[in-house]
Specification:
By secondary structure, the chain is an all-alpha fold. The protein has seven helices and no strands.
């Protein structure tokens, strides 16, 4: 929880997630799981979670839908919780991120342009072209992009998922 909360604070304040925090989360995940699951089974659990988190978000980074810090943070989350829980966190994070994005679009009065941008993205995807090439505002790194600090979304999604898991496990 400390890793995702720290990342959320950094992402909201500075619009970046420091490497020391993500790398620390990865190391923590490998160490905890290796200790708790007595060696190789725990290490393997972390390794698969790390790989799923990293490569799952790497695809979004390559589409310029996420920043590199988000990729590394989700890899750290995967290393801590393992791949089965990572998928649950991913789904919850996607839902919460979608809700937060709709609210942000409405508050910024960009509903119409967002509607057209979604159509543009779908059309470009059908043609096999990246949408950000033709419209710079669709590149998460561009100043015109409507930004949402995804580190904060990951934190909320992770904490919500863990709370649900704890509630239904007990």
């Amino acid at each position: 929880m400390a890793v995702v909360l720290g990342a959320a604070v950094y992402d909201v304040r500075y619009r970046r997630i420091p490497n020391w925090l993500s790398v620390g989360g990865v190391v923590l995940g490998f160490a905890l799981n290796t200790f708790l699951y007595q060696g190789w089974p725990g290490f393997r659990h972390s390794l698969i979670g790390f790989a799923v988190g990293f490569f799952g978000y790497l695809a979004l980074y390559m589409l310029r839908a996420m920043g590199a810090g988000d990729v590394k943070l989700m890899a750290a989350v995967g290393a801590v919780v393992g791949w089965p829980n990572w998928f649950g966190i991913f789904i919850v994070t996607a839902i919460i991120g979608g809700i937060m994005a709709v609210i942000l679009v409405a508050v910024r009065k960009r509903v119409k342009s967002t509607f057209w941008n979604v159509g543009y993205i779908i059309n470009e995807m059908k043609s096999g072209r990246p949408a950000y090439v033709g419209k710079e505002e669709l590149d998460v790194h561009h100043p015109k992009a409507l930004g949402l600090p995804h580190g904060a979304v990951i934190a909320v999604g992770t904490l919500f998922y863990l709370a649900l898991a704890a509630h239904y496990a007990g």
